[in-house]
Write a structure and sequence with these properties.
Chain lengths: ~625, ~550
């Protein structure tokens, strides 16, 4: 049955094709078809998983050659799939959580125009994400990488009426391009060094690559991972991406796509095994991001943005884990899986809250919703407990293990990695408790308020098609951690892909102490949140006179300002300089309809102001330069 | 070909005392067929009555292209290797045959766009180009056109065309064929004088074709004059370069120049001065920055089918000639000139990518995109390896079809004033015409180099070849430039999909069979080369240059 592995990709891809090409004819059944293809892929993935578990460890990695993409002498790229424990784990996460979110979307987008198209895009995303994780070479991986990006931009910009959505889609595209350049450069470097891009060969011959080149490759791969996974310094697009519909935030920007960076590094573990410096860079980026995300998450009032920064922070944990090398690859994937459950559940819960509150996202306008949304409250509450690492829920096992591994790095690095991870655990408890208190407890502030249309708020529980997926994910948030942890089930299963888990001998904090410390500091975070937020009246309007740290956190720790100063402004200057040199009557960027006002003749004059003499002069200048350079070089 | 024969023959006559050179008609057949079709088209223009001319011209053009393609197929299947014929002036070798095939296929697409009379009632070309803009006669031409409110339907068009008022200038067909023949000769020219004659044969008809637009005639004529003046300027550079190289090597044959430069103590100033001027002339035609200045204006002003022809075919022909000059004539001195071409390639990529960001007109935007692409192609052309050659040829094929289809789509978005090329008018196009927006979006992704389109496979082939030939820093710059360029393609996608349509925005014409066929051809090839590039890459790698 392995040879039909392509069905995993083909099913959702066919769904996307039918829904996007079929047009309005498929409106009636589009959402059902969208769910069916993903459920089908999930079923097939389960069957493959069951078969693989039955195989001995050394036979668990299979490669499927589908067809030859490039086939000329030096350039050989096959379109192939690699079925192994790592890719199958992702297949189950993507199709499983994906199917639940597809079902939830039926209710969330009920009555909206173009729900069919939405399912088409979602199917497209699932197909591309499966290509990404099932690829057996870097070019096919890149295909999936661009594919998920495309689906992500289309879905971020889903609400075409909002200019902010288009801006967010553009920002996501731009920052992802920066990351993609890194990935492409890494791929080209690998090709130059080894002449092949098949995983099997690249990893077998990784030792042939010289030290500095290998370091460059691993850092460039990390840059790609940073772009896709919203890691420092490319984290700013992810919170903005919350402009998309909430199921999209749950599926793409929490559970699956944004974890592609973690997948990439875990997949390339044979490369990272060879360079301690490369791993150190990865772990440092993870540590910076997890702290940064947690700090900013404390300052937002927008329920989705808090969750988004929480995602940034939690992916930081995963990147930190995979950056610790053999001691952490499996732990990163472990946290990725449990996070997939509880964060998807939290986002769906947030979607349910928004559904009840006329798409309101400002938590200052909520409060006391627990009584009105009992199912949402319970499922959200379980996800919350799992995220802050409440004992014996999912997050407890996976996050503790990463903090422990962080201390296990030994020496100064151990103190820094373990310490930041521990501190961020406390901050996580603080901002999540703050979120839950502001949303579900306290005064019902919305009673005094009106919606934008001037209506009263009538919060109500959502339909079963929405809450059933939430319940399933809540069960996952509760149980997945224990199931995967017991008997080192996941670690053992992943061994053929990422190697055995190395236990640290040089830990700066005893292993047994770490869980206690984590629980204690999380409890402290909860307590502080209760004292600061829970016991006071929450003002509906955002207080403006706040301390400096809060102001910095509200401004995303000035990430946008820094991006602006480092990238955007020099870019603008370069453009202006070039336009000036090019001597053209260029009329600025697209600025809406103003340009429509001038008649055709006016537009003609404005666009074509170049004189032949200045063009000829430009050419002459270039020519003199070229001739002079060639003559100088030849002497 | 007559002209080519005469001029290059003249030297021959002197040298060999009137001995006629051997001619391999089988190898030259595709070129001769196109020239023959061009001559037939001239006769048609002179003798066929006006109402029947359009049909006759389209038939002659399409049949000529098909016959040339068949002749090419016959020659290929005969298995003959590289042939140098006409006393060494024309080399019909692997790259030349690949480029001829590419030019014929792209030429067919362009001919279909040129022949279309449904999108613009009567065709995109003016009925009588000699009438001065703004005179009573010109107003009469316009009135005849505006008096056809049902003109967008095929029925109305036919009725109007039969009336004779808005008959298009059918001379465009012979001009097109002559130009195409010039391009084919350009890619196969084995000495610099033949190359110069072919350059003029391909350029002169193009200058005229640029000025034949039915709408916005002043803009069109201005573009034609600009293109002509700057083209003449560039031709002068080319010719001066030829003169210097003749002074250096005592011959204009590329092989002789190559031989002369290998280990002699002649003046390097003549050699490299000549090369520089030669390259400048060629870069102009290929619209490589900083010699691109004409490109946006001419692309914008020319009738869009002609723009499509220029963007696709001229680029292919010019790079074909650049490849031949560099690979055959100057391979042994590559270490000297490569640094300078690096600079040109970087300038072209940066200019194209950054200035493309500021454009507000679709045609100008694609023009800057073509400048950036010229830089990418130049990166491949500099790699003096078989992979570099085949990758570059593949890139030309892929880029040609994508840009052809893109301009085909541009002809469809129109309002009462003709084509709506201002970007703000494209806002919300996906809501008005999902299919057009999807096709254009796909083509933009191909230009940006997203996988599963030919843009990705082509870039991959070219950049990996350049990397293997030790040009890593250049590849890094190219990748960054393509990432920047991707942004302005995306801007259009965002505009089409995520913006509200303007209230008085343009409509999307339902194209007739010809334009539909051309766009479909471009889209299908773009997809095919993205998914299954091997067959084309194999063909491109068939053989190197023969001289």
């Amino acid at each position: 049955m392995d040879q039909y592995g392509w069905l995993l990709v083909a099913l959702p891809a066919a769904g996307a094709l039918v829904l996007l090409v079929g047009g309005r004819r498929t409106n009636a059944f589009g959402h059902l078809l969208g769910c069916a293809t993903v459920l089908g892929a999930f079923g097939y993935g389960l069957a493959l998983f069951a078969r693989t578990v039955g195989l001995p460890a050394e036979e668990r990695t299979r490669e499927l050659d589908l067809f030859t993409w490039f086939g000329v002498q030096a350039l050989q790229v096959d379109f192939g799939m690699r079925l192994d424990p790592l890719s199958l784990t992702f297949v189950l996460l993507i199709t499983g959580v994906g199917a639940l979110i597809h079902i939830y979307s039926i209710g969330y987008l009920a009555g909206e125009d173009g729900r069919r198209k939405f399912f088409g895009y979602l199917n497209l995303f699932v197909a591309a994400m499966l290509v990404l994780v099932l690829a057996d070479n870097f070019v096919t991986l890149y295909l999936g990488w661009e594919g998920v990006g495309l689906a992500s931009y289309l879905l971020i910009g889903w609400y075409t009426g909002r200019p902010s959505a288009a801006t967010a889609a553009k920002k996501a595209f731009l920052m992802n391009r920066v990351g993609d350049v890194g990935l492409v450069l890494a791929i080209f470097l690998l090709w130059r060094e080894l002449g092949t891009l098949e995983y099997a060969e690249v990893f077998a011959r990784a030792g042939e690559i010289g030290g500095p080149t290998l370091l460059a490759i691993t850092v460039l791969l990390l840059l790609g991972a940073c772009g896709k996974s919203g890691q420092f310094p490319l984290q700013a697009w992810l919170p903005d991406a919350m402009e998309g519909p909430t199921p999209v935030s749950a599926l793409i920007h929490a559970a699956t796509m944004v974890t592609a960076g973690v997948y990439l590094i875990a997949r390339c573990s044979p490369l990272y095994d060879l360079t301690a410096t490369g791993r150190l860079v990865v772990a440092s980026i993870g540590a910076i991001t997890l702290l940064l995300g947690a700090i900013i998450g404390c300052a937002y009032d927008d329920i989705k943005k808090v969750l988004a920064y929480s995602t940034v922070s939690q992916i930081g944990y995963m990147i930190l884990a995979v950056g610790l090398g053999p001691a952490g690859y499996a732990l990163g994937i472990f946290h990725l899986l449990t996070h997939g459950f509880f964060k998807a559940g939290l986002f769906l819960g947030a979607g349910s809250v928004m559904h009840a509150m006329h798409d309101e996202v400002d938590m200052r306008r909520m409060g006391g919703l627990a009584r009105h949304l009992p199912i949402t409250f319970v499922t959200f509450g379980l996800g919350y407990l799992a995220l802050i690492g409440f004992p014996f829920l999912s997050g407890y096992y996976s996050k503790d293990a990463i903090i422990d591994a962080g201390f296990g790095a030994g020496g100064t690095a151990g103190w820094i990695f373990g310490g930041t991870a521990l501190l961020a655990a406390g901050l996580t408890a603080f901002y999540m408790t703050r979120l839950v208190l502001m949303t579900f407890f306290g005064e019902q502030r919305w009673r005094e308020l009106r919606t934008e249309d001037g209506e009263e708020y009538h919060p109500h529980e959502c339909a079963p098609v929405m809450w059933v997926p939430m319940v399933v994910l809540a069960l996952g948030s509760v149980g997945a951690g224990y199931l995967l942890h017991a008997g080192d089930a996941l670690v053992g299963w992943l061994e053929p892909s990422v190697g055995a888990l190395a236990e640290s001998e040089v830990s700066v904090v005893p292993h047994d102490l770490v869980p206690l410390l984590t629980v204690a500091i999380s409890a402290l975070g909860v307590l502080v949140a209760y004292l600061v937020v829970g016991r006071h009246r929450v003002p509906v309007d955002r207080p403006q006179r706040v301390s400096l740290p809060v102001r910095a956190a509200r401004a995303d720790l000035y990430a946008n300002a820094i991006n602006e100063a480092i990238i955007a402004r020099p870019g603008t200057w370069a453009t202006r300089a070039l336009v000036y040199v090019d001597n053209k009557g260029v009329d600025g960027l697209v600025n809406g309809t103003a340009a429509l006002l001038g008649g055709t003749s006016g537009r003609m004059r404005r666009l074509q102001t170049g004189f032949v003499r200045s063009y000829a002069l430009g050419m002459l200048g270039g020519s003199v330069l070229v001739i002079a350079m060639l003559l100088v070089v030849s002497y | 070909m007559l002209a080519v024969q005469q001029i290059s023959g003249a030297g021959q006559v002197l040298a060999q005392r009137a001995q006629l050179p051997a001619i391999d008609y089988g190898a030259l057949a595709p070129l001769l067929v196109i020239l023959g079709a061009a001559c037939v088209a001239v006769v048609v223009e002179a003798f066929v009555p006006r109402p029947a001319r359009w049909g006759a011209q389209v038939a002659v053009t399409v049949l000529g292209l098909a016959a040339a393609g068949a002749a090419l197929g016959v020659h290929l299947s005969s298995g003959a290797g590289g042939v140098v014929t006409l006393a060494g002036t024309v080399a019909v070798d692997g790259p030349a045959l690949f480029l001829w095939g590419t030019l014929l296929a792209l030429g067919l697409g362009s001919a279909l766009l040129i022949a279309d009379r449904t999108v613009e009632p009567g065709g995109a070309f003016v009925a009588d180009a000699a009438v001065r803009v703004g005179t009573a006669q010109d107003r009469a031409q316009n009135r005849a056109q505006r008096a056809q409110p049902g003109g967008t339907t095929p029925g109305g068009t036919r009725a109007a065309a039969a009336g004779g008022h808005e008959e298009m200038q059918t001379e465009v067909f012979p001009l097109f064929l002559f130009s195409l023949a010039g391009m084919m000769a350009f890619t196969a020219a084995n000495d610099l004088l033949t190359m110069f004659v072919a350059l003029e044969v391909l350029s002169l008809p193009l200058y005229l074709m640029c000025g034949l637009a039915r709408r916005r005639r002043l803009l069109s004529q201005e573009a034609a004059v600009k293109y002509f003046l700057l083209g003449a300027f560039a031709s002068a550079f080319f010719l001066y370069g030829v003169a210097l190289l003749y002074g250096y090597a005592g011959s204009v044959a590329l092989a002789d120049i190559s031989q002369a430069s290998a280990g002699t103590d002649r003046s390097d100033t003549l050699l490299f001065g000549g090369l520089a001027m030669l390259v400048i002339g060629l870069m102009f035609k290929a619209s490589v920055g900083p010699f691109h200045t004409w490109t946006p204006d001419v692309y914008q002003g020319a009738p869009t089918p002609v723009t499509a022809f220029m963007a696709a075919c001229t680029k292919v022909a010019a790079f074909g000639a650049i490849l031949r000059v560099l690979h055959v004539g100057f391979e042994s001195t590559s270490w000297t000139w490569r640094g300078v071409l690096w600079g040109i390639a970087i300038a072209s990529m940066v200019i194209g990518a950054i200035l493309g960001l500021t454009q507000t007109d679709v045609k100008r935007m694609i023009a800057y995109s073509s400048v950036a692409h010229a830089g990418f192609i130049l990166v491949g052309a500099m790699a003096m390896t078989p992979d570099g050659l085949s990758g570059t040829l593949f890139y030309l094929l892929a880029y040609g079809f994508t840009t052809l289809a893109a301009f085909g789509v541009v002809t469809l978005v129109r309002d009462a004033e003709g084509e709506s090329t201002h970007l703000s008018q494209w806002a919300g196009l996906a809501k008005r015409s999902p299919l057009t927006a999807a096709v254009f979006g796909f083509l933009l992704f191909a230009l940006a180099g997203i996988p599963l389109t030919s843009g990705f496979t082509a870039k991959f082939a070219v950049f990996s070849a350049a990397l293997a030939d030790g040009m890593a820093p250049l590849v890094v710059i190219a990748l960054v430039a393509s990432a920047v360029a991707a942004f302005f393609y995306l801007r259009v996608v965002v505009l089409m999909y995520f913006s509200e349509p303007a209230a008085d925005g343009p409509t999307v014409s339902v194209p007739g069979g010809f334009t539909t066929a051309a766009i479909t051809l471009g889209v299908v090839v773009t997809l095919l080369l993205g998914v299954l590039p091997s067959f084309a890459l194999d063909w491109a790698a068939l053989g190197g240059f023969t001289s």
